[in-house]
Each structure stands twice: as C-alpha cells, then as structure tokens.
Inverse folding.
C-alpha cells in the first residue's frame, strides 16, 4: 500500500514539475508560398531535428503519404498523415499558399486534402519539436495544428478532447484506416472499439481530457479534478527517450520509447522501439463478439507470441486469404461439405475425416451443443452433420461449428476437431501449386528412385510406367480440385455455404410465385415460407430479364453478399441456378422498405428515423471498409433499404454492386443507379469510387430527416427543384423547421437535427474528394467527430468551371 501511495505522490510531483500547457519553443518559420514535392526529397524539419514533415514513399515506390515522422530514428517512424486513405503519385506537392491555406495537390494539380483553417488565414507555419505541425495567423494565434487531427498516434504534450478518435492502420505497412478505433467518448469514457468495445477506462465526466504530458505519462483529467492514470510501470525520461502512443493495426494501444542517444543507452535493444505498457493485455481474449471475426480474420485463430504480440494462424488444410496480411483470415483448401442430394453431404463418412488442433477454440460459432459426450461421439456427431465444419470438445461437452469461424483463440482444455476431405491430412505426390509437401514425401521419392536404380532396365521401365500412370491421373484430379476457375457454379456457391434450391422447391416455397412483394429492374420478389419451418419466411427474387443479363446480376449478387455478414445487411440464404432460371433467397424483412415507411400516410418518429440513418451508415461503412473485398453498392435509395421486425435498417439488392480488390480505389464502369440518387461523377466520365454511395446516402439522409422524396415537386420553396438543392438553403438561412415541417420531436433535438443536416450536405458535395468516407460519416452522425461548416454543394464545381 505504501509503495502504491509513493508512486502516486511521485506522479503528482511530476505533474507539478512539468506543466500541462505546451511550453513555448523556438521554431523555424515557414513562409507563405513555401512548398514540398515528392521529387525533391526535402522536408520541413523541427528546430532540433526530432521531427520532419513531408512526403514518404510507402508500399509502392511511386505512392506517397504526406506525413510527420521521427527524423532521427532510423525507421523514420510515421506519427501523423494527411492522406492515409488517398495516397498520391510521384509529382504531387503540398503548398502553404499565398492565401494562407495548406493544400495537398496530386500530380494532375487536383486538390486532395487541405487543412481546415479556423478564424483567419495563416500567415506562416512551423514544424515544432513536439511533433506538432502548426499554422499561425498574424497575431501569432494557432489557426490549425496536426495535434487536433490525430490519425493513430499521440505524442508528449498532446491533449485529446472528448469526441476524438484514433484509427489503426490496416497492416504494418498499409497506412489506410483499419478496423480498430480508440474513442474518447463525449461521456468521458475511453474505449477500444471494433464491432463493439473490447476495452474501457470505465471513466465518466463532462469536459474531460486525455493528456500525454511532457513527462511521458498518459492520463484522463476530469472536471472534478480527479485523475485516472493510464500509464503503468516506470517511465523513462522524455529528455533521453522519444515517446509515442499508438493504436497498432492489431488493435492494441501501446506506449513506445526509443533512446535519443543509443551510445548512452547500451543496454537498450538496438534499432527498435520498446513497449512501455499496453492495453488490452491479451487482444486474443479481449474481443469476444457475435458480430465480426475477432482479433484475427474469419476461420483463423489468434495466439500471443513471445513478444506479447498477437499472430494469426490457419487450421489444418486452410490457408491465408492474403499471405501478406495474415490478419485477414483463412479459407479452406478444399470444397466444403454440403447437404445437397448427390453432393458431398449425401455420404459424408467415406469422404471426410476429422483432424485435431489441440487447445484451440472458436467460441462464437456454435449452432448445436451436446452435453456429457466423449471425444469419439463428438467426432461422429460432426461427421454425420453436413453443416458441421468443426467440433470443439472440452472433455465433457461437444460444440458443433459452421463456417465462417469467428473469434478464434488458444484456449487450454479444449480440442478442435476439424473436418477435412479424406487424404488431405497426408500430402500426396506430385504436389499442386500451393500444397504443403514435407520431408516424408521426399523420403518416398528417394525410395522409389533407389528401387529403380537397383533393378534391370526393363523392369525399371515397367515399374516407372506403373508408378507414373496412377500418379498422372491423381495429379490431374488434384489440379482440377485446386483450380477455382475450373470449378462449377455450384461448387463456387457451395464454398460460400449458401443453400442450393431446385426451381421446383422454390415454386412450392412461394406457392407458385403467388404473393408479389416488389418489382425491380432485374426481376420480381415473392414472399415464401420454407417447408422445413413454417415460421421461416423468405423473400425469393426471381431474375426475369434476358438470360445473359440475369446471369450477370445473379453472379454479382451472390458473390457480393454470399460472404458478408452484418446486422445492417439483408442476409442471403440461398440460390437456384437451374437451366435458365436464376433465383435468390433472402431473409424476409417484415416491415417492408424504407420508402413505404418514410413516405406513407403517417410520419415515423424522429427517434426511429435516427436509428435507421445510423443503421444504413454502419452497413455502408462495413461494405466499404470492413469487408475482405470492398463493395460499392451503386444504388442506395429508400426502396433498397428494408426494415426487419425491430425496424432495423438492412441494405438490400446488391445487383448493381461493383466489387473492388483491396488495393484498388477506383473503377470505371457503365452508368448505374436511380435518378435523384446518382452522384454527378457518373455523368462526367470520371472514375467511380465508394464516394458515389456517400452521395446517395446524403440524399437518403435528407429524405429520412424530412420524410420527403428528393424528386417530389410542388413543395413551396422547393418547386421545380429537388430536395437536395433546397436543403442547403434551409441550412444557410437557419430555416430547418421548414425541412421537418415543424416536427416537434425533431425541433426539440435541434443540435442533432442540425448535425444531421450538415452531414447530409457534406455527403452531397458535387466534388467527390470533398465528401467524407462512410466511416467518417458514421462518426459524425454519432457525434464522435466534430462536423465542420459545409460549403454550398455546387460551389467547388462552380469555382473551377
């Protein structure tokens, strides 16, 4: 007790000796008109040379990040970046313009990023020894500073206010926004968050601050004066060591130190940052959520290595989706078992076996549990069940799992029994590309060739033919099995774990396609009931257009949504691919479409509309940033947002979705979408990005706020125009009551109403680069990120036109 008290007194003494306010320091003035380019390799350096601001090449030598880094550390560790989600090519530049704006332009002269200067324009800039880039006005006041716009790292002397968010990287070398966040909430609580919070400071209070002081301690200071210390253990001096605190790509928030003079710190690990403390202590065990994959990707499991860092591993006969990003998850190296007649599910025992993975569990993927069993019974139960991919046995109970497996981790006392095809656990010769040959196989080859050499030539030839013939046929089969382009459509869909229906089954399910729910550009949707469960309602979409076009739609939708799962997306349950028939089976949404909900006879409550707006934003954020493959919907509108039993918004109809690879940001494609929701770039022969969905969401958000259709005419001031044209006038003239038609519930919540309108205006900017990402849109709607004053949506285009 005395020791703990002494430590706290020492910490308070440190606070007194090192005041929280930023100590004045000298700086090298950067004058208006100064600029940096990717080609001149120059930078703006702080007075002591600790930090530098400029361009860093990342991933690809021709891609650049505008960043701040530790300049005297050999690794040049980056602590802040301006364009992490929009890298620029060689030939780009950043300039402190004559008008006092800090602007990043790409190699074509287009503005990519600008510092949002407050009050008056800047008259100079400086890179400080604290790692803070500041813009000064004529009165020496700060008009903008990088410390107010943190990415994933904070530094000593930095203060975070409530509502601030740090976002992790995607990987160690990919600086784009990742799936983990540190949120300093407006209630004073500090959270680490992915699909939900997995660590909390358990603090509360108004006007709290998170402070990284100049002694190297991080703590929360609350309005009543109380202090909640985050830093644990003894901290080395900031005089002799560099300090930073980073939310790493693996979801762990760590404070690092690095010696400023390596010769005076001979015992320090050479050339590396040392971890002073971190939270949570075990990320593998910290995340336990029924939504999302956990610390690692789907179908993988998480381990804490000797360095106390997590690593992600694939189970037997599975391999990484992306070997360069092991946190992305794993996929089976075989066609999964199915329950279809004539498929691998008809006779499971001769085709599948169980392999063991000790001390491993996926605790969130159960679909059936058996008590008081033994291991042999557990194996039999999984082998007899065509839905079962893995069984977990804990010595007493058996838990059957289906794919995808989530939240995998090492867990003592459990054993994973993994179902794989017979023969997959024993490598066979010859090996197809990507297979795992071992020493035993090389030994087999040695024996074969030794036998050949010890026999007569004639016998050798006979033996060689006898060996090579079955090997050739076996190899041919293996190649076919491991080449996805050779797989049939049914095999591809079965790999997604969707149910395959016959056309006759779906005729019975829909009672002869009797009850129509809706009609779209590519087909009609019918209500149905699965025979296996009288209460299990489904929506069956029958694609009726030309066969070629319907087939394209069919493949696009199944590829897009067969592998993604989120509470704000309509689940795809199955499909029918029989002759020319193409049908999709979805979960039934009992409360219809958002269009009928918003534009019906009665106005939905304000709280219901808020809940729906949050849901659509989160669903789009998932599609754009959290899927293994980015999905652009291309047709967001109220008719494509369905409402479940609890009026939760579910995004549907991915028929117009355009898939992008993870390393792509743009795609050129034909015009898609619906009038009134289509982004302007569709008509300008511009590259299409996820920002088209942001524009459509902005239109939908205005409709959700006002309960009016965007293209509806004859609404007073809005006559002969659209709702999105009118909304900026209502905002600028402070007449939001006209927008909501004196909705008392909305007007009482005036701050949120104004925030929602401002977010909508940012979304409908005609210039795509001005629109925020859907992740930032969600944060702004939730109040986690401040919403700046939006410009007139057409002002940017007008100014350059």
């Amino acid at each position: 007790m005395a020791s703990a008290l002494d430590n706290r007194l020492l910490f308070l003494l440190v606070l007194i000796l090192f005041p929280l306010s930023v100590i004045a320091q000298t700086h090298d003035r950067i004058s208006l008109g100064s600029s940096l380019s990717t080609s001149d390799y120059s930078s703006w350096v702080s007075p002591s040379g600790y930090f530098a601001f400029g361009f860093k090449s990342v991933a690809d030598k021709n891609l650049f990040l505008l960043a701040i880094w530790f300049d005297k550390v050999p690794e040049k560790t980056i602590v802040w970046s301006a364009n992490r989600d929009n890298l620029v090519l060689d030939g780009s530049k950043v300039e402190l313009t004559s008008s006092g704006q800090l602007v990043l332009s790409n190699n074509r002269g287009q503005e990519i990023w600008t510092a949002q200067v407050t009050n008056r324009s800047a008259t100079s800039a400086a890179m400080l020894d604290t790692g803070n880039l500041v813009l000064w006005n004529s009165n020496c006041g700060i008009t903008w500073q990088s410390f107010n716009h943190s990415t994933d790292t904070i530094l000593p002397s930095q203060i975070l206010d409530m509502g601030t968010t740090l976002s992790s990287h995607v990987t160690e070398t990919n600086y784009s926004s990742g799936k983990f966040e540190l949120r300093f909430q407006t209630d004073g609580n500090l959270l680490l968050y992915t699909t939900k919070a997995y660590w909390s400071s358990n603090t509360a209070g108004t006007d709290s601050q998170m402070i990284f002081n100049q002694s190297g301690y991080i703590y929360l200071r609350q309005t009543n004066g109380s202090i909640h210390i985050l830093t644990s253990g003894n901290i080395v001096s900031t005089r002799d060591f560099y300090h930073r605190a980073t939310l790493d790509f693996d979801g762990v928030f760590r404070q690092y130190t690095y010696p400023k003079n390596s010769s005076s710190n001979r015992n320090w690990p050479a050339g590396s940052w040392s971890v002073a403390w971190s939270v949570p202590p075990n990320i593998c065990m910290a995340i336990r959520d029924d939504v999302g994959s956990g610390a690692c990707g789907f179908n993988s499991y998480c381990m804490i290595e000797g360095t106390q860092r997590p690593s992600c591993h694939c189970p037997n006969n599975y391999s990484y989706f992306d070997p360069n990003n092991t946190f992305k998850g794993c996929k089976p190296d075989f066609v999964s078992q199915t329950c279809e007649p004539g498929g691998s599910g008809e006779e499971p025992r001769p085709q599948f076996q169980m392999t063991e993975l000790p001390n491993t569990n996926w605790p969130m993927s159960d679909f059936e549990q058996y008590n008081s069993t033994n291991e042999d019974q557990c194996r039999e139960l999984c082998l007899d069940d065509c839905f079962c991919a893995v069984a977990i046995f804990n010595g007493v109970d058996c838990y059957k799992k289906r794919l995808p497996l989530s939240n995998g981790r090492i867990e003592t006392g459990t054993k994973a029994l993994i179902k794989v095809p017979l023969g997959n656990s024993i490598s066979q010769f010859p090996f197809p590309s990507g297979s795992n040959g071992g020493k035993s196989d090389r030994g087999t080859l040695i024996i074969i060739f030794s036998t050949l050499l010890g026999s007569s030539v004639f016998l050798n030839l006979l033996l060689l033919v006898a060996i090579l013939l079955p090997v050739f046929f076996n190899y041919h089969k293996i190649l076919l099995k491991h080449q996805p382009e050779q797989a049939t459509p049914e095999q591809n869909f079965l790999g997604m774990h969707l149910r395959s229906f016959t056309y006759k089954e779906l005729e019975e399910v829909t009672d002869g396609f009797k009850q129509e729910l809706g009609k779209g550009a590519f087909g009609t949707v019918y209500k149905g009931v699965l025979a296996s469960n009288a209460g299990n309602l489904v929506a069956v979409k029958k694609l009726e257009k030309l066969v070629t076009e319907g087939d394209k739609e069919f493949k696009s939708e199944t590829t897009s949504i067969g592998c993604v799962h989120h509470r704000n997306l309509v689940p795809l349950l199955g499909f029918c691919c029989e002759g020319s028939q193409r049908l999709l089976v979805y979960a039934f949404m009992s409360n219809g479409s958002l269009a009928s909900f918003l534009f019906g006879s009665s106005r939905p409550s304000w709280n219901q509309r808020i809940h729906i707006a949050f849901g659509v934003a989160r669903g789009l954020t998932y599609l754009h940033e959290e899927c293994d493959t980015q999905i652009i919907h291309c047709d967001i509108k109220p008719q494509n947002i369905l409402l479940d039993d609890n009026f939760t918004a579910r995004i549907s109809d991915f028929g117009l979705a355009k898939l992008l690879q993870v390393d792509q940001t743009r795609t050129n494609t034909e015009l898609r979408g619906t009038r009134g929701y289509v982004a302007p770039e569709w008509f300008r022969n511009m590259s299409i990005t996820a920002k088209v969905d942001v524009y459509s969401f902005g239109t939908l958000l205005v409709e959700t706020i006002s309960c009016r259709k965007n293209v509806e005419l004859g609404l007073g001031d809005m006559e002969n125009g659209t709702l999105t044209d009118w909304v900026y006038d209502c905002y600028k003239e402070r007449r939001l009551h006209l927008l909501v038609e004196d909705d008392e519930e909305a007007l009482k919540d005036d701050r949120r109403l104004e925030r929602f309108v401002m977010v909508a205006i940012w979304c409908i900017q005609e210039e795509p680069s001005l629109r925020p990402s859907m992740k930032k849109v969600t944060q702004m709607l939730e109040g986690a990120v401040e919403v700046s004053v939006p410009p007139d949506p057409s002002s940017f285009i007008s100014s350059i036109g």
About this structure: The first strand starts at residue 30 and ends at 31. The chain has a mean pLDDT of 79. The two ends are 71 Å apart (CA to CA). Residues 30-265 form a domain with the Agglutinin, subunit A fold (CATH 2.90.10.10).
